Every structure is written in C-alpha cells, then in structure tokens.
C-alpha cells in the first residue's frame, strides 16, 4: 500500500512578493495541484483585482481565503515544519534537496504536521535571516540559468507534492510548531548570553548552530516544554543565588 502527502496540511507562503500577477498565477497553480492554503507575508504590492484576474474564477475561493501577515515570524507560527526554497547554493545553504526528494520526506511528516513551503521575493529570494525559520531547503535544478518565475516555481513544487507516492512509512508524531520553537530559542538565547556562552553583541549569529542542531533532532512539543522548563529552573536558581548573596562567589569558583 502506498501513501501520499496530505495536501490539506500543506501551505504555500509567499514572503514579500512584488507582483500581484505572480500571486494570482501561484494561486492558480495551487488550485491545479490540490493545495488549498496560500499565505502572503509583508507584501505592499498585492492588488486583489490583479490577483483574481490571473487566478481566474476557478481559484477565486482560494484567493478569497488568503491569509495576510506583516512579518514572517507571525506567518510561520502555526506550522510544525518549514521548507525554504532557494536558487542560491553554498554558504549556510547546505543539505539542499530536490523537489522529488523533499516530497518523499514530507509524506510521513504531513500526516500529523502542518507544513509550510516558503518562497522569497522575486528579485532576491529568501535571505539568510529567513532561512533561520526553515527545517529543510529545496532547490529546483536548472541548466545555465537558475532564476525561475515565482509562479512557475510554485507550480513545480506543488506538482511534485501532488504526484509523489511511496510505500507506507514510519509514523512521525506532531512536531513543535514554529511558535513553540521560537519561544524556546528566545529563552535559550537569554540563558546563554547571561552565562557568556554566546556573545551578547551578535547573539543571533551564535544561535545559528544551536538552531541547526535542534532542527536535525526535529523536536516534539513535549521536548520543547522540557527544555523551556530547564531554562525556567536556571532562572529560578540564578535569582535565588542573587537573593542569598552567593551568586558572585559561585560564578567565580
């Protein structure tokens, strides 16, 4: 028996798209491939009349249900797994998968987890800061010219999602959402700055490796709760030592 991606758990997220026509064409592609949810983040160029014209009446309902967010962090909060798309390779963009490979990996994940597929603006794509939210990266292989129209890229990814099948695979439980993870990272960063494990001048840079480490583990909500509980206990102990006048002595022992 074969399994396929649960398309109801897939959302396409366009981060700062520059052209309303591309939004409409992306919506039409999603409708063709059975993916129901479109999210727009930080766009100041969204003319719904132009979007609807490109989407056609067939995808009008999908357009009417578009969710809008001002920033990427808020837009990704409900999702348990984020796939970032990239045309650029190298640097911190490691472990990049093809659309076919990522589709196979998402079959089990999508049964119990909400998946976001993130596309950057047409002119620059996703920034390194955007990539911090991503669990995995996907690149559409090209020959000689790597730039692909945004709506075409959405169509290619959505097509792979709709046709990929595999043998029944291992059950994967619900992972921690971006909201849960980001709250945990803030607590961890605060603790590590205070104990001088990471530099206060640029803590986000030093947190990248820690983020990558936890991303590979694919934390569940209950595990995030344990880590946050440890952070709270460290805070409590630090406060207790300070109130007892022992913090300064113990730190320098």
Descriptive notes:
It contains 11 helices and 8 strands. With 253 residues, it is α/β, with parallel strands linked by helices. The strands form 2 sheets. Strands 4-3-2-6-5-7 form a 6-stranded parallel beta sheet. α1 (20-33) packs parallel to α7 and α5 crosses α7. 34% of the residues are buried. Residues 249-253 have low confidence and may be disordered.
List the main descriptive attributes of the protein structure presented here.
8 strands, disordered C terminus, two-stranded antiparallel sheet, 11 helices, 49% helix, alpha/beta, single chain, 253 residues, globular
- Morphology call: globular
Beta fraction: 5-15%
Counting helices, strands and paired strands, the structural category is alpha/beta
* Poorly predicted spans: 249-253
List SSEs in N-to-C order: EEHEHHEHEHEHEHEHHHH
Helix content: 40-55%
Total DSSP helices: 11
The main β sheet shows up as: 6 strands, parallel
Radius of gyration: 21 Å
What's the end-to-end separation, in Å? 62 Å
Beta strands, count: 8
Strand line-up in the sheet with most strands: 4-3-2-6-5-7
How do the helices and strands line up, and which of them pair or pack?
Blueprint (H helix, E strand, L loop, with lengths): L1 E3 L5 E6 L4 H14 L3 E5 L6 H8 L4 H5 L2 E3 L2 H5 L4 E5 L13 H14 L2 E5 L8 H4 L4 E3 L11 H14 L1 E3 L10 H17 L8 H15 L3 H24 L2 H5 L2
Parallel strand pairs: 2-3, 2-6, 3-4, 5-6, 5-7
Antiparallel strand pairs: 1-8
């Amino acid at each position: 028996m074969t399994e396929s991606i649960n398309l109801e758990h897939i959302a396409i997220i366009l981060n700062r798209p520059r052209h309303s026509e591309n939004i409409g064409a992306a919506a039409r592609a999603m409708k063709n491939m059975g993916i129901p949810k479109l999210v727009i983040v930080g766009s100041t160029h969204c003319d719904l009349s132009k979007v609807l014209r490109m989407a056609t009446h067939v995808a009008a309902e999908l357009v009417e249900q578009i969710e809008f967010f001002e920033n990427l962090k808020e837009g990704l909060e409900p999702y348990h797994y984020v796939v970032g798309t990239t045309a650029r390779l190298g640097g911190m963009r490691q472990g990049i998968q093809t659309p076919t490979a990522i589709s196979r990996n998402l079959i089990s994940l999508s049964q119990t987890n909400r998946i976001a597929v993130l596309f950057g603006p047409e002119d620059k794509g996703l920034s390194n800061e955007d990539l911090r939210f991503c669990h995995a990266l996907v690149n559409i292989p090209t020959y000689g010219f790597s730039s692909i129209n945004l709506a075409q890229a959405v169509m290619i990814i959505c097509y792979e999602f709709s046709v990929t099948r595999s043998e029944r695979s291992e059950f994967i439980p619900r992972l921690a959402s971006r909201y849960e993870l980001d709250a945990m990272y803030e607590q961890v960063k605060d603790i590590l700055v205070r104990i001088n494990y990471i530099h206060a001048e640029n803590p986000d840079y030093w947190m990248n490796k820690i983020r990558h480490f936890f991303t590979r583990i694919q934390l569940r909500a209950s595990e995030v709760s344990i880590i946050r509980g440890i952070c709270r206990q460290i805070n409590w102990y630090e406060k207790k030592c300070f109130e007892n006048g022992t913090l300064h002595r113990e730190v320098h022992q």
